[in-house]
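To whoever is on call:

I kicked off a structure prediction for a single chain this morning and the downstream step that reads the tokens threw a length-mismatch warning. I double-checked the sequence; it's 442 residues and nothing unusual in it as far as I can see. Pasting both halves so you can look.
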Amino acid sequence: MRLSVWRRRRARRLAYANGGVWAIGNGLASSMLVVYLAMEYDVPGMGLGIALILAAPQLAGLLRLAAPALIAQLGGRKRFCLAAYLLSGLVLLGLPLVAAPGVLPSPAASLAALVGLWCVYHLLEYLGTVALWSWLADLVPLRIRGRFLGRRERWMVGGQAAAMLSAGLFSYWWNASFSPSLRWVGYAIPGGLGACLIIAAMVPLAQMPAAVSGSAGRRRVTLAALAAPFGDGRFLRLVLFGCWFSFFNGLTQAPQNIYPWRVLGIGLFFMLSMKVGMRIGQLAISPTVGRLADRWGNRPVMLAAIPLVALGPLFYFLSGPGQPGWVAGLFVAAAWAAWIAYVGLNVCLPNLMLKLSPQESNTPYIAAYYSVSGLMMAAGTLLGGALFDRLGQWRFVLPGGPAVDYYHYAFLFGWVTRSMGVVVLWMVLEERPEVRSRGAKG
């Protein structure tokens, strides 16, 4: 059964509303807030502990490979998507209650519970997202998909920006008003409220029509279908880029998250403010990025975005504890300003992934891309955390330059490797989309 133009447009509006409400919840219960909550445990091996928080969701996300079979078994994409998102919200709602300091016998046990629940939450969310991307691919024609993703990204970054700023202000007020022993409560309250909003985001999702094609998402999934993405040369080039960028992005996560707190003395409110500024910048340009992707293709936009994104670690490298606090803060702010360019990847990567996947059987391709690139992100993050714990006190002498500590060596390495992503992306093949395509109007 094909949908009318009116129903397609209504489906897109509901998708915007779902993205906006979900983003508010996600911004309140952000990974940065969970990282600061974990730091309250003050356990040895902080680098690996933070790396586990950042990597555990990606490790669990490897199970996304099972999503196509689960979708087929559980009655289609819409039902599976709603069930996965509901369960993920419930798990997130229980996280601050179970992992609160003092609830379990030791700080190490609390950290383990935090990592475990954070992992399960993301696994369920990732499974639901595989179904959602496949579902949206049917609801939105290729001709306008870039613009749709750009507008949805605007709703999402706007919601995240407002929520993160609210969470940061609340934690700042809480920490100024209550004793340090209750500081974790200032992180737990926004997290619990965020979980409630993630569950509420299902309301517009439940009103979206199931699919354009009645057979989509319900056909039997074979092993050959699950393996098909790994035999598709064009798609594998995109997977290779995803693996490269994810691995080297993950490698600097531990020092990048610990450095502002431990070395520069920057609190959660300032860091969330930087993230909010990044989101506002992304909000302003995401529709334009979507239109450029529709007109010129996804790869050119990504090629322009990667060098800008790579500047972030370089700005961290230029900051240091020997400088006045406001100078170091400016360099950190410049890094977050450079990361506005992530919007080019956030819009164009999923668009290109859907474009290189067969329309009638795209769930194995979606699951394969996110599972493999997520695994590489986890591997890089865990390796980066282990290296930080082992080498964090070392100093390195750059060729022809001064000695630098491990933080700055990692930031310089991150700038070089992220910049090299341009070379890997250059190998990805994409046919230029037609500016004026024939087909059903949306």
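Update from on-call: the warning came from a stale cache, not from the record. Cleared it. Sanity check on the structure: DSSP finds 19 helices and two strands in the chain.
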